[in-house]
Amino acid sequence: MLPGWIWLSIAVIIAFILRYCYVRFYKILEAEREMLLIRHCSRCPDILTEASIRHLPPIVKLWLTRSGVLNKAFNGGVHLRQQGKMRTSINGKWMPVAAEQWFSATVPAFLWSADVNMFPPLHLAGKDSYVNGKGHMLISLLSAIPIVNAKGPEIDQASMIRYLAEIVWFPYAAVSDYIRWEEEDALTARATITYGGITASALFRFSEEGDFVSIAAKRYYAAKGRSTLEDWLVDVIPGAYRIFDGIRIPDRLQVSWLLNNGRFTWFLLTVTDISYHENRAYQLTKSPRHEYL
Where is the chain membrane-spanning (predicted)? Predict the structure, then answer.
């Protein structure tokens, strides 16, 4: 049996390595966040008016009006915080998740950082990004051991669809040069996004009052070492709307895959904090004022 001092030394070395990997992971995140803000969030989008949305399908115009984004000036960046839970299989264990996300509204881009508690003391550190038309998903055990490191055309498409779905948190991005809308019926509109040489589309469904209800799209799903194009669905939990900084958005959603063997709801999330008018000097300790409906 090894002497106690050797075991102690080994423990100290492992702790040092894990700490180093943890700090390195989050320094990379910070650098990418700064790059996103500098390169994609410096220009302000145009102020939306009733005249500037006249060409959109009626239900999309109603959504933007009801959201409260007309006649307001926004910086190109958005920052939000999430709490929720996710699982990796239909019968899998739900794991708590805490996440932060930054968006560019002037060109499509985002950076999502998450901490997933598997069970004490194990956790997963996740990063999902979409910058310059390229997606990248990185998941590491204890912020040190890469489990997923995915890039390529299929990830680019999946990230583009994700961005399109998440503009419901900053609806003014719906009127962008890279997004085109077409009416499907009185309550449904198809949004087509084109950027970085890739085009994808999704169906947005709304209530009669103009609230966003769900989005459905074909998105790449990775399982067993391969990716297939599957039906992907994001639903708003009924009645889950909240006003942040004067903007009315859905704050509780569920994300599902509609697979051959059934519906796989894998992520339940709540937006706990959101800030518009982002800039490089933004402090993560800022706490915007909220209002409940």
Answer: 6-25
